[in-house]
Amino acid sequence: MTQIFEILLSGITQGAVYCVVAVGLSLVYGASRILNFAHGSLYSLGGFLAWYLVAGGFDLPLWMAVLIILPVLALTGIGIERVIIRPLRGSDNWKINTIMVTLGLAFIIENGLQLVFGPGTRTIAPFVEGTLELGGITLSWYKVWIFAISLMLVGALEYFLGHTRYGQAVRAVSQDMQGANQVGINVNQVFSFTFALSVVLTGIAGILLAPVFLVSPLGGWAPFLKAFVIVVLGGLGSTKGAFVAAFILAVLEAFVIFYIGPSWAMPAWLVMLIVVLMVRPKGLFGVWEN
Q: What is the phi/psi pair of residue 134, to 5°?
């Protein structure tokens, strides 16, 4: 029984980080109906920037590196939306075009990371060491911290979207873009903001997981695929759905890895996705409609 609880807690702590990655992807889709295929590469970018500042020669503490990285990531998100996405919006087949453009951007970021940092993998030391003993269950203190940080980030985002004027503007744009524009909401500004916030969230996830997993220039596709499955399972555009789906799939992954093996984790996710979509084609919590 203790072993089962240990696996369960491991899945829950991992699910919190998956949630941060997925909520960023869901936020952009919910507001602008854009599926950003560069999302995973931006996750890798966050990890590499953290490594460069912490272990690549600057020897900064992680908290200071994060303070430097966050505005860089936000400006990156704004630049992507304004320079790459905005000119395509409104043109024929613009949704397909944005998928192709963001896919190309992912390859550009990957090759840029390889050019600057080399093809090898990197890692950084966790900001807290040791383990926590809880009723015979052993947990890494670092995973406990990233669980708490991830929950705080998602909770802050939900509060922002539901209880602030600008957050409600984001929801208004996601529900009726033309109506939001007619009542005076700057739709383009909302798009830029959601892209910036999405890149910041996925970058933070890359930073948090850098001490747990190796950072690789090509390592963003697995987080992107997982985020995509989470978003579809939860319901495209639903941050609440992404939150619930992230924990369901992370716990499933933990049990599958322990009892069957790591190579079966992603197939188990896809089977779960197919089963749920057969019953609820829009996912667990439906979709925001424009």
A: -135, 100
